């Protein structure tokens, strides 16, 4: 966060234990928006072997008022913009520091800040040092007692971690609350909330019969949107008891929603703070996707209570220890909530799509890093899809190698060994290995080597013997030219040979061959089933075989994958879909036994960002048009079928967010898109009717999106109506901005979207300081509308650069995310590259770049 001239690089290999530990913390905070005073009393202890070492505390963006050691004022210290150093200290002492900060001026949303008149904190990764001077590192764990003081009228609710001990009236309109958290925790899990909020609450009994108070705190206008979050929390608590035997350890668990937040949510002990986007939901304002996101983010933060809080990270290089594992847990939870085997497969496909669209490009670009990075300049830049989603894949592979039971044994041992500790990724793998007596030494390369491995698949069939040779490689990534072979678990099955069942092959060498003798005919290989390993398969499987997989594979993932490959070949080779494929697709669309949600995914073409990864030089307009052509062909060839699908998948009656109903809506809305794309003239009226009669956001927005994307006649009127209807609901207005920022380009006028975005930038509802709103327009245009953004001219890239710079001064984290939009610039065709490069250089020449933005831009240009 600190603005630096010369960037400092932090190395994993530099880890040293702290010279001091903090046993307990007593905070007394007088909350005033313009100037908040923090009195911090810490019981300090010198670590063994650190005699004569000074105490170096982190601290940023605050005014130091006083320092006391055992009650005595100290004046000999060194103060820098980032630290406070004290010398000649005893081994055990009380350190008391008073400081002040200005929450209402804090636009970075790190540390203590004000949002819509209320106070919130965000301390991960290094925000606590903006609240008080501290050893702000995750391996320093202390117990906290927190006294909050504020004007009662303005801040009637005062919350912090743990249990409420006392509340008092203080006179002059002030009141106070004292909170105690019995569990030692690192400072990044500290939180406070103060303001005008209301809660819904429920009490439940946990597995062992203890009563628990659950609360969801929001602004009063949002109380009618809290039920789904509460239901999701209760379901998460139950799931963690059943699947992992993990119980809620506090008597009270709170979720609070805030409209200004940099990320999705934060797992502060007992007081999770959420972006409103991932809490608030009611049928009229939240889509099925929103409902699903609320469920999985609530679960994710709750699951952190064990994987992250009870057992935390030794240092930030170990971030995937908690994030990869917790994403794996929330993915498994959401898969189970789908309520069927086909639902589990749908969830798996959705997760793999994200991995391929976002993580694979990251792994191939200038910011590529192992899930456990070896270095960083700004830790905030490492909350990445690699650490989270690839990290989850690495945990999933361990479950695949050990089996579900073996994995559970490993988890049990992990908690038995490390409860209450700050540990490393090595400790996690050691628990898995030891609990199962399995050697995972080579497997650990997944933690240290970046890049997406490729596995080449070559088959032969001679005299009844089938052979498949698997050869692995991994492209060079920044700082890692040569890679050692990975330990890759590949689930496979030979189709055609009725006796064959699914097998696990552990590919550990550069090249290995599987031999199956005694077959009457060549089988069809179904490999990397359920995406058992996050790799790219180089496999020129004949189209005839892909068609067989599409029709018959019992692994739903690979059935979907076969369709994706066939579509991809058409798009990249500019080749029409052949008749046999079209009729197979028609049969799938009409197959009553198949899950509509699965069909929706099957007919969704590979994303442009994934297609970019398939070519050596990216011509984004050519890819955009080729993809549209294939989609147009799918739309036209199956027009009658889309009409049937549209009518067949209506969900009359009151809205239910369950997976089955959501699947029907998603297929129905895809059908509406396809009808529009096929040029079916009644689409305009059908979409307009759906827009007007919808009783839920999925259908209303789904119809609006079709009208807007295909420029149908009711588009403008419905867009205005939508704004008018939802003008007081920020999250829906975000959708209104995002839809226009991501609208499909008119091939005759490719700059129209930019013109529209520039106009929206001046709209009275646009506010660049609010991260959700900034992302709904700026990030959406630059990162989710490749057809409109990637033009062979300077304008769009200049727009991007100007916004990175503007955001850099307001909120470096939001700016740095946007800065990633040009990561893959070196892969683009020269007529794009020139403009991308000047835009990157324009940013790099700015003064006062935050360390967040500087790191991203500098790595891109290197
Ligand atoms: N630990 C959180 C993610 C998170 C990280 C940094 C933040 O600060 C801006 C906020 C949230 C999670 O995984 O949900
Ligand atoms: Zn997390």
Structure, explained:
- The protein has 26 helices and 31 strands.
- With 862 residues, the protein is an alpha+beta fold.
- The strands form eight sheets. Strands 6-5-9-3-2-12-15-14 form an eight-stranded mixed sheet, with no helix packed on it.
- The protein is 41% helix and 21% strand.
- A hairpin with a 4-residue loop joins strand 20 and strand 21 (271-275).
- The model has no long low-confidence stretch (mean pLDDT 98).
- The structure holds O-methyl-L-tyrosine (0A1) and zinc ion.
- Zinc ion binds at residues 300, 304, 323, 326.
Per-chain topology:
Blueprint: E1 10-11, E2 20-30, E3 36-46, E4 55-58, E5 63-69, E6 72-73, E7 78-79, E8 83-86, E9 92-101, E10 111-115, E11 118-122, E12 142-151, E13 157-160, E14 163-171, E15 174-185, E16 192-195, E17 198-205, E18 211-218, H1 227-244, E19 252-258, E20 265-266, E21 271-275, H2 288-303, E22 312-313, H3 319-337, H4 341-363, E23 375-376, H5 385-418, E24 422-423, H6 425-436, H7 445-448, E25 454-462, E26 465-473, E27 488-495, E28 503-507, E29 511-516, E30 524-527, E31 536-538, H8 543-552, H9 556-573, H10 579-590, H11 596-602, H12 608-612, H13 620-637, H14 639-648, H15 659-677, H16 683-693, H17 697-709, H18 715-726, H19 730-741, H20 752-761, H21 771-784, H22 786-789, H23 795-810, H24 812-819, H25 830-844, H26 851-861
Parallel strand pairs: 2-12, 18-19, 19-21, 22-24, 25-31
Antiparallel strand pairs: 1-23, 2-3, 3-9, 4-8, 5-6, 5-9, 7-8, 10-11, 11-16, 12-15, 13-16, 14-15, 17-18, 20-21, 25-26, 26-29, 27-28, 27-30
Helix pairs in contact: 1-2, 2-3, 3-4, 3-5, 4-5, 5-6, 8-9, 9-13, 11-15, 13-15, 14-15, 15-17, 16-17, 17-18, 18-19, 19-21, 23-24, 23-25, 24-26, 25-26
The structure holds O-methyl-L-tyrosine and zinc ion (ZN).
């Amino acid at each position: 966060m600190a603005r630096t001239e010369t960037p400092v690089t932090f190395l994993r290999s530099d880890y040293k234990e702290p010279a001091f530990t903090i046993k307990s913390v007593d905070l007394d905070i007088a909350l005033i928006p313009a100037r908040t005073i923090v009195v911090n009393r810490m019981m300090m202890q010198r670590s063994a072997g650190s005699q004569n070492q000074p105490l170096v505390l982190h601290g940023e963006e605050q005014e130091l008022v006083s320092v006391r050691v055992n009650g005595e004022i100290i004046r000999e210290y060194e103060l820098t913009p980032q630290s406070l150093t004290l010398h000649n200290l005893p081994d055990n002492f009380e350190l008391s520091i008073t400081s002040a900060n200005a929450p209402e001026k804090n636009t970075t949303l790190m540390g203590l800040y004000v949002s819509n008149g209320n106070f919130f904190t965000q301390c991960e990764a290094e925000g606590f040092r903006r609240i008080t001077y501290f050893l702000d590192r995750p391996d320093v764990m202390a117990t906290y007692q927190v006294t909050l003081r504020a004007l009662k009228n303005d801040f009637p609710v005062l919350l912090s971690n743990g249990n409420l001990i006392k509340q008092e009236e203080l006179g002059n309109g002030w009141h106070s609350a004292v909170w105690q958290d019995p569990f030692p925790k690192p400072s990044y899990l500290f939180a406070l909330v103060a303001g005008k909020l209301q809660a819904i609450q429920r009490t439940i009994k946990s597995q062992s019969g203890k009563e628990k108070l659950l609360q969801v705190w929001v602004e009063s206008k949002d109380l009618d949107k809290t039920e789904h979050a509460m239901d999701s929390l209760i379901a998460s608590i139950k799931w963690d008891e059943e699947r992992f035997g993990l119980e809620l350890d506090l008597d009270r668990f709170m979720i609070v929603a805030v409209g200004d937040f940099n990320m999705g949510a934060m797992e502060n002990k007992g007081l999770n703070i959420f972006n409103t986007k991932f809490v608030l939901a009611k049928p009229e304002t939240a889509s099925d996707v929103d409902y699903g996101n609320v469920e999985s983010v609530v679960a994710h933060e709750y699951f952190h209570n064990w994987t992250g809080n009870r057992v935390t990270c030794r240092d930030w290089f170990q971030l995937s220890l908690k994030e990869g594992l917790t994403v794996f847990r929330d993915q498994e939870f959401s898969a189970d909530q789908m309520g069927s085997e086909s639902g589990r497969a749908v969830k798996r496909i959705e997760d793999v799509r994200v991995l391929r669209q976002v993580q694979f490009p990251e792994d191939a670009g200038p910011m590529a890093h192992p899930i456990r990075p070896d270095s960083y300049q700004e830790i905030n830049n490492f909350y990445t899809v690699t650490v989270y989603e690839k990290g989850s894949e690495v945990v999933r592979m361990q479950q695949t190698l050990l089996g579900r039971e073996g994995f559970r044994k490993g988890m049990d041992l992990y908690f038995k060994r490390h409860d209450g500790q700050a540990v490393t990724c090595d400790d996690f793998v050691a628990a898995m290995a030891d609990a199962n007596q399995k050697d995972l030494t080579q497997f650990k390369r997944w933690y240290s080597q970046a890049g997406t491995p490729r596995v080449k698949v070559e088959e032969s069939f001679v005299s009844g013997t089938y052979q498949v040779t698997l050869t692995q490689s991994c492209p060079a990534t920044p700082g890692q030219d040569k890679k050692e072979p990975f330990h890759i678990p590949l689930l496979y099955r030979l189709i055609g040979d009725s006796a064959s069942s699914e097998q696990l092959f552990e590919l550990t060498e550069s090249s290995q061959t599987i031999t199956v003798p005694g077959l009457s005919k060549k089988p069809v290989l179904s490999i990397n089933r359920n995406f058992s390993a996050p790799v790219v398969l180089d496999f020129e499987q004949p189209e005839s075989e892909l068609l067989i997989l599409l029709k018959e594979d019992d692994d739903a993932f690979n059935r979907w994958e076969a369709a994706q490959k066939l579509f991809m070949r058409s798009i990249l080779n500019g080749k029409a879909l052949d008749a046999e494929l079209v009729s197979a697709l028609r049969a799938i669309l009409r197959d009553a036994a198949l899950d509509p949600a699965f069909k929706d995914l099957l007919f969704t073409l590979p994303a442009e960002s994934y297609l970019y990864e398939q070519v050596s030089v990216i011509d984004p307009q050519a890819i955009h048009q080729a993809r549209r052509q294939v989609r147009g062909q799918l739309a036209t060839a199956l027009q009658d079928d889309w009409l049937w699908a549209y009518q067949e998948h209506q969900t009359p009656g009151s809205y239910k967010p369950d997976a089955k109903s959501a699947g029907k809506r998603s297929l129905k809305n895809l059908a509406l898109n396809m009808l529009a794309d096929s040029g079916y003239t009644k689409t305009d009226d059908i979409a307009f009717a759906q827009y007007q009669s919808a009783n839920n956001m999925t259908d209303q927005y789904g119809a609006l999106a079709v009208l807007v994307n295909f420029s149908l006649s009711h588009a403008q009127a419905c867009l205005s109506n939508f704004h008018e209807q939802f003008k007081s609901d920020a999250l829906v207005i975000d959708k209104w901005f995002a839809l226009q920022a991501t609208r499909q380009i008119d091939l005759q006028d490719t700059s129209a979207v930019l013109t529209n975005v520039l106009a929206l930038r001046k709209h009275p509802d646009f506010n660049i300081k609010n991260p959700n709103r900034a992302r709904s327009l700026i990030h959406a245009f630059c990162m989710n509308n490749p057809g409109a953004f990637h033009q062979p001219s300077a304008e769009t890239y200049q727009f991007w650069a100007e916004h990175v710079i503007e955001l850099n001064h307001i909120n470096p984290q939001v700016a740095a995310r946007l800065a990633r939009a040009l990561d893959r610039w070196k892969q683009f065709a020269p007529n794009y590259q020139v403009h991308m490069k000047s835009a990157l250089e324009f940013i790099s020449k700015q003064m006062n770049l935050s360390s967040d933005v500087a790191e991203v831009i500098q790595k891109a240009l290197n």
